Amino acid sequence: MCFIPRSSSTKYSAGFGFRPGLFFLFLFAFGCGDGRPARVPVSGRVLIDGKPLTVGAIQVVPRGNRASGGKLDENGRFTLTCFEQNDGCVLGKHPVAVNASKHISSTTRRWFAPKKYANYEHSGLEIEVNGPTDDLEIHLVWEGSGHDGPFDESVMGE
Fold first, then answer.
1. Is the pLDDT of residue 1 over 60?
2. 29 φ, ψ to 5°?
3. Where are the domains of the chain?
4. 3-class SS at 62?
5. Rounded to whole angstroms, how far apart are CA atoms 60 and 46?
6. Which H or E run includes 128?
7. Tens digits of per-residue pLDDT, 44-64?
8. How far apart are CA 44 and CA 98, in angstroms?
9. What is the pTM for the complete model shown?
10. CB within 8 A of 17, min separation 6: which ones?
11. Is 88:40 a contact under the CB 8 Å cutoff?
């Protein structure tokens, strides 16, 4: 058996110079939260020309934060999800997209609302989230879209 004494000048560290004191200082300074922005529950419904939109999904896109989205049900209702099921959306004023289309064949897509609403940058839709809500309403219209109701579009290579 061989015994090799350590000299007092030998330094040992646990990977990347981990120091327990710095770790606890970091926790104290930044908290123990999940590191995600605060969210509030948000639900509501989407209407087109005053009637529930029953196909599609809504997306709320906060600048600088993760988007929230929700699928529309048979009554046009949705509940927003950001990180976890139904956790809502961050507070503030945000652009909105509503994509109300589905493939009806390999070469045809049916739109149940004007295409402009599918892109949050061009939809003209915006919501302001000031706190939890279950009665948010998004109003869409066919007027000015070149269509007066659902229409089919030929698609290739999607």
1. no
2. -70, -35
3. 42-97+115-140
4. coil
5. 13
6. strand 125-129
7. 999 999 999 999 999 999 998
8. 13
9. 0.75
10. none
11. yes
